[in-house]
Specification:
The protein has 401 residues and is of the alpha/beta class. Helix content is 32%, strand content 22%. The protein contains 13 helices and 17 strands. β8, α8 and β9 form a beta-alpha-beta unit. It binds ligand LLP.
Length: 401
Amino acid sequence: MFNNNTIQRFNDTETPFYYYDMDVLRNTLDACRDASSKYGFHVHYAMKANFNPKVVDMIQSFGFGADCVSGNEVKAAIEHGFDKEKVVFAGVGKSDKEINLALDANIFCFNVESVQELEIINDLAKAKNKVAGIAIRINPNVDAHTHHFITTGLDENKFGINTWQLNDVAETLRKCDNLKFLGIHFHIGSQITDMEVYRNLCTRINEMQDWFENHGFTIKILNTGGGLGVDYYNPDTNGIADFESYFKVFSKFLNVKPGQEVHFELGRAMVAQSASLISRVLYVKNGQKKNFLILDAGMTELMRPMLYQAYHAIENLSKQLAVGSGQSEQENHSPVSTHHSTIKYDVVGPICESTDCFRKDVDLPQSYRGDLIAIRTAGAYGEVMASGYNLRDHVQSIYSE
Ligand code: LLP
């Protein structure tokens, strides 16, 4: 929901751009902190979801930790002031250079995804005369009931260590003097809204910690990963992810022993609703079978719809402004409809790819060249996945005041 002053400001700004509503971000982070601190849970922000500097600074100011998946993310987290004791480093393919960087930064924990990676981190730590904190990322074979492109916890996925390899893990850990075993790590997928899935995950985590303890290991950290989903359909009426129910499931079903810490790595739920991609209609093509709205933003600015068939709400803001203020057709380029009829448009971008389509058959009021279009819930995996394909300008950002 944008007020008229904000839409006027958009009118004066070159499109396309990401608009960050810092109040939405603040309220979301507040809700996350309140809901997690009730149980003494530790939340690391998954930097990959959005590393816009202002966004990251605000998240850091709340005292969350950082979950990183590259050396550069580790570096950025430290530069943004995250406590190194709260930085974790995951990823199925950490390079030697990245591991060395993280060792030099003395981060809290590496989430390790293979037996070979354990050996390499041990060797690199030994060369520096250091001991690396590690958690074993286990693939729990739990179905996340989400889009298969963003499911990570099934046997068929490349992530984590499968349970039948745990004997190898135990043996390797016993002989690696430069590793300090901290605990176990999981991440089963993203955009998960079914709390039953987390309950199943808790069951698997409980089994896994029994396994490790039966094999002589002490578990300090239970890291459940991220994945909490948001409501892409109702960004205004349901703008804050259900942190309450999410943390409650873990408090209820996770078997947390004295001295253990429970860690989370949330990305999307913390940032998704705080941004919209604002674009303008360049051309309207009325075909015999289809009407197209051709925007000045495309898959180079927001890739999710093209990559995962992801739904984002699409709104015509110029029409909203016109209806709100009773402006005339000339003033606003868009006729104010006296009736509330809509037209179906395929909303597409300017990129030379057929897949460059935000959504087909979107019901919108009749739209015109120059109208402002908002693509909502774009704060997570939006700006960070922008590309320079077609030699496009890097997408700009503006912020609420
Ligand atoms: N921890 C690990 C190890 C992860 O791989 C991820 C996300 C997270 C935490 C944070 O997950 P979240 O809370 O944001 O669901 N680009 C895709 C999503 C990819 C998620 C990758 N891993 C999308 O736009 O839907």
